[in-house]
Design goal:
318 residues; Rossmann fold; single chain; alpha/beta; 42% helix; 10 strands; 2 domains; 4-stranded parallel sheet
């Protein structure tokens, strides 16, 4: 009996000395959200990324190894069915085995409706209905519209996600609650510095119009005051037809767009066709982190790269 108690005491000491042994198993769907979760978990454990880097959540199919990860997880974090549709049924089948955080349901989060159509007039800020999401704001949501799920591109939303994840982790792992809170505070400070830095960088090009590959950037646009005047396609997995390209060429002419941005996950020829014979520059924007190394720094690299691409391509001197 004494040996058993000695072994048990030793095990408890080992767990206390190594928080990762007691840390909850966490699975996160996409790189930007995974980065925010990883930042909160620094020094405790690493969350598992479900969707590989460079793979679009719009087209990803769940693998057997992913299913095992979900079954073993204590906490699962995803954005929502509109973005990661492949996760909806597997998560519903878990039957409460894991705590599931749907980021788009976090109280206080700002959500925008998907903008209808591939092109939109003016600055487009009159279209879509901004609403603060969550229990208190549910009545504000227009039921005939779908939410735009690229919500992490607003730093204010990122701060709320960090806060919620720290709370969830502390509830699952009280031994490391203080560490999660400290990490969340560090992440908040980093996001604030990132926010201010991007505002400064983009101040000179805010009024320069541009066209994006698909309308994934309105959270960034609205927060930082840039000027998107259209998108090539409504959905990234639907190639535009000849009529659509003709409409966009006219949009290029009438809007005096300075730049058209493609995305690394999708073919470039359609962008080359659109700008052919014009002086419009081509840049690259990536809303999801196609070429990033997963981890706590990925979110900041993602946002910085978007800002750098905009500043470079939209600058009259570039």
């Amino acid at each position: 009996m004494e040996r058993i108690w000695t072994w048990a005491l030793g095990a408890l000491v080992a767990v206390a000395a190594n928080p990762a042994l007691a840390a909850p198993k966490v699975a996160v769907s996409i790189v930007p959200i995974h980065s925010l979760v990883a930042g909160v978990m620094q020094g405790v454990a690493e969350p598992t990324l479900l969707i590989p880097v460079g793979t679009s959540p719009h087209t990803y199919a769940l693998k057997p190894s992913d299913a095992r990860t979900l079954q073993q997880a204590d906490l699962i974090v995803w954005v929502g069915e509109t973005l990661e549709n492949f996760l909806a049924k597997p998560l519903a089948s878990l039957g409460g085995k894991a705590r599931v955080v749907e980021v788009s349901d976090i109280d206080g989060l700002t959500l925008y409706d998907v903008r209808e159509g591939g092109a939109f007039e003016g600055h487009a800020h009159s279209q879509g209905h901004a609403h603060s999401h969550g229990k208190k704001a549910a009545a504000k949501k227009a039921p005939e519209h779908d939410d735009d799920m690229h919500l992490w591109l607003d730093p204010d939303n990122a701060r709320l996600i960090v806060t919620q994840i720290a709370t969830e982790l502390a509830g699952l792992d009280t031994a490391n609650a203080a560490r999660y809170a400290d990490n969340a505070s560090v992440m908040h400070d980093r996001i604030a510095a990132l926010d201010q830095g991007i505002k400064t960088r983009l101040s000179a090009v805010q009024d320069r119009p541009y066209i994006v590959f698909h309308d994934a950037y309105q959270y960034f646009e609205r927060h930082f005051g840039t000027t998107i005047v259209g998108s090539i396609t409504v959905s990234p997995d639907q190639a535009p037809g000849a009529k659509r390209l003709g409409e966009l060429r006219e949009k290029l002419r009438t809007s005096a767009a300075a730049c058209v941005f493609r995305e690394p996950q999708f073919p470039a020829p359609v962008v080359d066709t659109l700008v052919g014979g014009t002086n419009v520059k081509v840049g690259v924007l990536d809303p999801e982190g196609a070429n990033l190394t997963p981890g706590a720094d990925a979110y900041f690299t993602l946002m910085d790269r978007i800002a750098d691409s905009l500043a470079t391509c939209l600058s009259p001197a570039s």
